[in-house]
Each structure stands twice: as structure tokens, then as C-alpha cells.
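Minutes, project huddle
Topic: does the predicted pose make sense with manganese (II) ion bound?
PN asked that the exact inputs be recorded in the minutes so nobody has to dig through chat later. Recorded below.
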Amino acid sequence: MEREILNAINSSLCPLIITHINPDGDTLGCASAMKSFIGDKADILIQIEDNFNFPSSYSFLPYINNAKNFSNIENKYDLIIALDIASIDRMIGSAREIFDNAKNTIAIDHHKTNKGYAKLNHIRGGISSTGEVLYDFFKNLNIEITKEMAVGLYCAILTDTGCFKYESTTSHTFEIASELSKAGIDTSQIADLCYTNKPKNLILFQNNLVSNAQFCLDDKIAYTLISQEILKKYNAKDEYTEGICETLRSIKNVEAAFVLKETTNGVKVSIRTKEIDATKIAQKFNGGGHKRAAGCTIKLKLNQALEALLKETKTLL
Ligand SMILES: [Mn+2]
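Predicted holo structure (C-alpha cells), as shared on screen:
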């Protein structure tokens, strides 16, 4: 399949690389590396939803500043390359249309849930990042990984492994990091660019939520509530809540952490756990996810949702 994908890229006149909606470092890093490999004929499309700020910290990635968006994208592409996109639902609006109309389509991804929606699929579920899948793809095809490509690949792997902390990080992931570092990139500078460029309001908002956290059952459960009021106070974008639940879980003795956000469609709950299975809690409310990180939406008022959630969690502790 890797060879077929390379042939499709080589024979395309006008390929379009698509990142997933509300992009992260993995999808953007991969898009940057792929564009760097293909060259002039390729474009990148970045999909941004209304209440989402493009993470400007990633603008250091080669070609990302000149990427297309929904306002200036044309329907002229003969090949679509979807990177890090778990399902077709992660493409919206004109992206979906362009994908459906394209003569040929490719998906390169690492999500276990990816069922292979493209004509040519290269999916390796469970690998740390699409960055790792893409690195191996280039290597297996004897494609030289330039310093420019290495920047995107390193950013992708660094961010999707939580700086090499998550369980999916293997010895092979470290080998790749080592190879990319040998390509001449400044790994320390890339980490700084990814992690020390946050909006002021994001940090103030997160600090507020952490300092208002509540604890119960001898600190086994930690939670914080996000009302519409506080979202407005900090003019908080959707991505501002990322990482708060992990912070609460990182506290000694905490076994389960929750962030409950009031939305117009009910209460959006993030769940992070240490030993207990987070999906067991999420599934009670028709949600899902991974063993230590899951989520669900509860169609109740904020305080009622909290009560229901605590009741379910206490049976597991
Ligand atoms: Mn990813």
C-alpha cells in the first residue's frame, strides 16, 4: 500500500493535504512534512470551526502560514491526502465536498477507530502519532527525510505523545526522535515553540478553574465546573479547556478527575483516571474513549450532571 500511495502522489497534478478539524500538532506537523516532501504542486487545507483559535504556536511549521482555509479553497484537486483524520466526520463543509469529489483519496493515520474511508488507506492503529506512521512511510520507501521534513515530523510526534510520556511511546518512537534530531533540527527550540506560546487568557482561565477545583472521597475525586459565565469572562475558546483535567489527575491520591463544561447541548464531561477504567464511567452516559481518558455529554443541568457522575464514580472506587 505504501508504494501505491507514493505512485498516486507522484502521478497527481494537483494534490491537497487536509488536516483534521480544529488541528493539533500531529495533523499540522504531518501536513507540513508531506507538503515539504511533495513540493510546489501540493496545497494544505486547514479546517477551523467557529469557536476555535488556530493554535498560532504551530505557525513555525514550514508552509503552515500559507495554508488554505475554507474561505479561499478551490475545487480543483485530483488527489486528497487526509492526515491524522480518524473518520470522515472530522472533515466538514467544503473539505468534505472536495474529498467526495476527488478522483483519488489517501488516508494516513494512527487512530484505532479509523475504518479506512479513503481509496488508499495506510492506517496503523495504536502507533504513537501519525507523525510516526509518516516517518516509517518515508523510510520504507527510501525517501530522504530532509531537515525541513524533520521539523514537522518531530512536532507531530512530540505533541501527540505528550512529550514522550504516553503509553503509546515505544523504543521505536525514541529511535525516530533520535534520527530526526540527527537530521539537524533544534529539538529544544521546537518544544519551546509548541509549549511556551500560549494566550494569556488561556493560562488565567485554567488557573481559575484549577483553584476552584473541588475534592471528595479523601481526594480520590477531583472536579471543576465550567459555567457559561466563566467562559465569557475569559472569552475562552474551545481549546482553552485542554489539559485542565490532566492537571487535576496529576494531584496525589486523585484517582478520577472531571471537568464539566456547560454547553447549549448539555454538559460536556472530560474524564481522566489513574487505575480505574474511565470508559466505564463514560459509557454510563453514552460516551467513550480510552482507559485513562474518556468523555461524555450529559443532558442535565451542571449540578445535576455532577451529582449523577459522582454517584457512578463512587461505585467504582
Ligand atoms: Mn494524532
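Observations noted during the meeting:
- The longest helix spans residues 25-38.
- The mean pLDDT is 94.
No decisions taken; revisit at the next huddle.
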